[in-house]
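Final report, Chapter 2: Outcomes

The project's central promise was a pipeline that accepts a single protein chain and returns its three-dimensional structure in a standardized token representation, suitable for archiving and comparison. That pipeline is now operational. To close this chapter, we reproduce one record exactly as it appears in the project archive, with the input sequence first and the structure output second.
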Amino acid sequence: MRDVDDVVQESYLRVWRASAAQPIESARAFLFRVARNIALDLVRRDRRAPLEQVGDFAGLNVVDESNDVRHGVVTRERIALLAESLDALPQRQRQLVILCKLQGLSHRDAAVQLGLAEKTVTEHVYRGVQRLGEELQRRGLDRFAG
């Protein structure tokens, strides 16, 4: 019923302003016309942007605080951190860590694919993983898993 009170209040205010500017012949007719126009304005406004009253905000589930959401956010943050840390590696180490550690290619297969000695691949992967661990630790992540 707040809208009704608002219409009455606004109607009296407009009638008072209008009567201050010039005399009104029929205050009653003028008041009803003003009230009708204000009510129509309110109806139009509600059609454009209807508002729904909500009693209990806690029951709305606007923010999902489940473990799945938290886990998803943490996982995305860790993946972003890993990507940034991988980018900090020298190109060859980055390439071989991705091939062998992330894509699961054997050192032998990576060596054949890139035309390198298997021992070279092993050395690059070892150094790359060490640097990657140092970079992750420098960025505040002591362990990547978990």
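Archive annotation: Helices lie at 2-21, 27-48, 67-87, 91-102, 107-114, 118-138.
This record, like all others produced under the grant, will remain available to the consortium after the project formally closes.
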